[in-house]
Design a protein that fits this description.
The chain has 202 residues and is an alpha+beta fold. The chain has 8 helices and 9 strands. It is 42% helix and 18% strand. The strands form 3 sheets. Strands 2-1-3-4-5 form a 5-stranded mixed sheet. A two-stranded antiparallel sheet has the order 6-7. Strands 8-9 form a two-stranded antiparallel sheet.
Length: 202
Amino acid sequence: MTAGDVFASEAFQKCADFHGHICPGLVIGFQASKCALEWLQANRAEDEEIIAIVETDACCADAIQVLTGCTFGKGNFFYKDYGKNVFTFASRESGKGVRIAMKPDALDLDKRHQELMDKLRAGTASEAERREFEKCHLQRSNDIMNLDPHKLFDVKSVKVSMPSMARVEPSQPCFRCGEPTMGTKLKQIDGDLICGGCLENF
């Protein structure tokens, strides 16, 4: 199956619709997710059957949520602010875990692509340069999709300490703002129960 075939697939289109556009980061997340599901011999999580731990908040995280069914809302998607394209997945049913890490030399950004990206971020790109960047970005996405995942990632079995299942608990009002807050998230200060937002802002 070619990159074009994958881009046209329903699974990838759902990722692109959720993220808003096609980009190299989204493709990295898509590739990592496909690799993980195959390795775990698992389907997309309907509830909390699979967990995902991502070490970046970049574009790839969106594809992982869509493809694996691991989401913040279900409580089976965990973010560690390490700034690395490293993703760990585990199955509650089998107990198997896999760590998928981008190889150091897997992707070397083309010099012109980097120049255009820098101009876009600085707000100095012309319309022609913006179009050129989009073309480079799409080509880069295509190249990554055509890579064998094992050339893109280091993939290894890991033992994952499973987090508790997501909890749903009654809310209580914060003493300061009065807003309903999960009871276990309130902190007791001088005998009063205070929410995290009030602790940060007052």
